[in-house]
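Subgroup meeting minutes
Present: P.N., E.W., G.H.
Scribe: E.W.

1. P.N. recapped why we're keeping a running log of single-chain structure predictions: easier to compare across weeks, and new members can see raw inputs and outputs side by side.
2. G.H. added today's entry (64 aa).
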Amino acid sequence: MPVEDVALEPDRDEEGTDFLRVIVQVKDIDHTGDADFEALLEAIETTVGAIDERYPSVRFLDAA
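Output recorded in log:
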């Protein structure tokens, strides 16, 4: 899966809980399969979790 860019943004939800937003820009998303997204998700969770365990949840938002 060709990743074009990754941005990290610390943020806070409505309840005041800190979280880290990881924004991944993927090239040619229409030709990327579910298995590729699952592998990317696991890689992000593993990497971010090793740095700071406060950020255990990773999810993909639907593209606009």
